[in-house]
Every structure is written in structure tokens, then in C-alpha cells.
TrEMBL record:
Name recorded for this polypeptide: AAA family ATPase
Gene3D superfamilies: P-loop containing nucleotide triphosphate hydrolases (3.40.50.300)
PANTHER family in the record: GENERAL SECRETION PATHWAY PROTEIN A-RELATED (PTHR35894), PHOSPHORIBULOKINASE _ URIDINE KINASE FAMILY (PTHR35894:SF1)
Residues in coiled coil: none
CDD domains reported in the protein's UniProt record: AAA (cd00009)
AAA+ ATPase domain span: 42-187
Molecular function via GO: ATP hydrolysis activity
Length: 285
């Protein structure tokens, strides 16, 4: 609706992930490098955490694409599966055949797979998204799976990805056996103000914007404050602001439009309102 008005070839702040449009902040780069190192070095367990909407799943997809010639990476995105369904799903992901859907049969076939891939130099990675939703019983099943990797000569890396409460869950004394196998942890930080500005410009560029000053400096600062530096919330707020700006026939998104959009989206307000925006002060404006 607003694309022609703002000179855009497509909507810049879509929520649907697009592997061709990946913005890498310093935090994202470090998260990716940490996971990449952990897999290449064949670490047993890796834990990646981050708040909702910070790009954890995007990092996982990028890792899978980057290592597709060196590893077999299977991703489980539904952590609420029953134990039976979990093994059925893994059998499908690792192409072990329908006969391997029973747990005992799966263990035998999966051990054979790990040993075969170890001989050919191919590493096996099991990545579990939304791992903070796993049941205690499922955590134990995953720990037992890691035993097979150890028996096959460090042939398996398990990556647990989840919200910050995952760290709290793993700190429980009942998780001691699994926790002792975790060799790498990383938490994706929220964007800094500078990251938010770069992100908005990046998304506008990828959308084919003819001009990059669609959002003025004070508007960008407010986007950061309302979103707390969360990429998903930045997308939601900026998309709403563009629609509101179009409806108001404003070619520049200013602070007032951001405030109105944030109020309609019921986003918590900034801790304080400054007379002059951060980016304005930074640039002497």
C-alpha cells in the first residue's frame, strides 16, 4: 500500500524470514562465529540464548547453509514433541527409514550413521530451537543421545537454542549431568542505538529505497527506545509507522508518527523523552 508513496520496490520490514536479507550486528557476527567454531571443533553441547525476536533462528539457518558441505545439520523446531514422536522425527530428518522410528532401533541406526560419517569426515549436528520449552524427560533423552556421539569419537554436536530462561533451567541441580557437557555458551545481545540505525537503513536499501532518510533521526531514536533494540519489534513498529505516514501523507517519518504507532501497538514507552534525539546530538543537529 505504501511502497509507491515511499519509493520502495517491496516492503522493507516484513516479519517472514528471508535468507537473502540477513543483517549481522556485532552480536550476531559473534554468535555465528561462536556456533561455527563449536561445530568445527566438534564440541559436545553448545547453548545459544537470546530474547524473543533477536535472530536466534536466523543464525541457525545461516549456520546450516554455511556448513552444508561439511556437516549434516538437523533442526528440530518443535520441542514439545512426545519422546516417541521425537525419535520418529529424527528418523525422518536423518533419513534412517521408517523401521528406525522405535527408540531402540533408532539408537542402533543412529550409532551406525555417526560412525559412518566420522570415517568420512562429516560431522553430525542436532540443533533444537525453542529448547527452553523442552520437558525434563526430553532433556534427558537428548543427553543420552550425546553418549552415542561420544562413543563414535565426538561425531555429534548438539546445539540448544532458546530464550534466556534456558540458562535458568540448565542451572537446576537435576540438569547437572547435561550441564557439565556444555562447553560453549553465547547470549545474543539486543541492538545498541547505532545498530538500530544501521538496521533500518539496511532494510530500506534491500527494499530498493530511492532515499534512505525516510525515518528522521529522532524517529530512529524512538524506534530504538520503544523496541529496546529487538529486531522483530523494530520491524513491527517501522512497518506500522510507514503505513501511518502514508495515511497522513507524510514523506518523512518523524517522532510523532513513531509515538502514535507505538501507542497503537501498545508498546511500552521510553524511560525518558529527550528534547533532542540521540542521533541529532551525535551529528550536531
Amino acid at each position: 500500500m505504501y511502497r509507491d508513496f515511499y519509493g520502495l520496490k517491496k516492503k522493507p520490514f516484513e516479519l517472514v524470514p528471508d535468507d537473502e536479507i540477513i543483517f549481522m550486528s556485532e552480536g550476531h557476527k559473534e554468535a555465528f562465529s561462536t556456533l561455527f567454531y563449536g561445530v568445527i571443533e566438534r564440541k559436545g553441547f553448545i547453548v545459544l540464548t537470546g530474547d524473543v525476536g533477536t535472530g536466534k533462528t536466523t543464525i541457525l539457518r545461516l549456520l546450516k547453509r554455511s556448513l552444508r558441505k561439511r556437516c549434516i545439520i538437523a533442526m528440530v523446531s518443535n520441542p514439545t514433541l512426545t519422546i516417541h514422536d521425537f525419535y520418529m522425527y529424527l528418523s525422518s530428518l536423518f533419513k534412517l527409514g521408517s523401521a528406525s522410528r522405535a527408540k531402540a532401533r533408532f539408537m542402533i541406526k543412529f550409532q551406525e550413521l555417526l560412525e559412518l560419517k566420522a570415517k568420512t569426515g562429516i560431522h553430525v549436528v542436532l540443533a533444537i530451537d525453542e529448547a527452553h520449552l523442552l520437558s525434563p524427560e526430553m532433556f534427558e533423552e537428548i543427553r543420552l543421545l550425546s553418549n552415542l556421539g561420544m562413543d563414535a569419537g565426538a561425531a555429534l554436536t548438539i546445539v540448544l537454542v532458546g530464550q534466556p530462561e534456558l540458562d535458568h533451567i540448565l542451572s537446576n541441580s537435576k540438569m547437572r549431568a547435561l550441564r557439565q557437557r556444555i562447553t560453549i555458551r553465547y547470549h545474543i545481545p539486543l541492538f545498541r542505538p547505532y545498530d538500530t540505525r544501521r538496521y533500518i537503513i539496511f532494510r530500506l536499501q534491500k527494499a530498493g529505497a530511492r532515499r534512505l532518510n525516510i525515518f528522521d533521526y529522532d524517529a530512529v531514536e524512538l524506534v530504538h527506545e520503544y523496541s529496546k533494540g529487538c529486531p522483530r519489534l523494530i520491524n513491527i513498529l517501522c512497518d506500522h509507522a510507514l503505513l501511518s505516514g502514508y495515511a497522513a501523507n507524510k514523506i518523512v517519518i518523524d517522532a510523532d508518527i513513531i509515538r502514535d504507532s507505538a501507542r497503537e501497538l501498545e508498546l511500552a514507552g521510553p524511560a525518558s523523552q529527550k528534547r533532542k534525539g540521540f542521533f541529532g546530538r551525535l551529528l550536531g543537529m
